[in-house]
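ugh ok fine here u go
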Amino acid sequence: MVNDTWMAPNHEARRFVKYRSFHMDTHDQSLLSVSEASRRLGLSVGYLNNLRVKGGGPAFVKTGARVTYDPADLAAWVESNKRRSTSDQGASA
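structure:
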């Protein structure tokens, strides 16, 4: 849904700028920022950033410069990293 709104960004200039605000659906509203995801996973932001760059981390959504994480993808990543022992290579090996 698009909401067109008129607003004056600077009352002294008396110029009006039209901008659009987009209403996100429920799925988009549940996306987590990098810091929220790192807290949820118990990892540092830096480590999560390294995983994103080098690979091996949870799936993420990139919109422009913004990076977000779907909580379902975080849960799936945690599940895929479960091991029964330190010598267990997991299903990917």
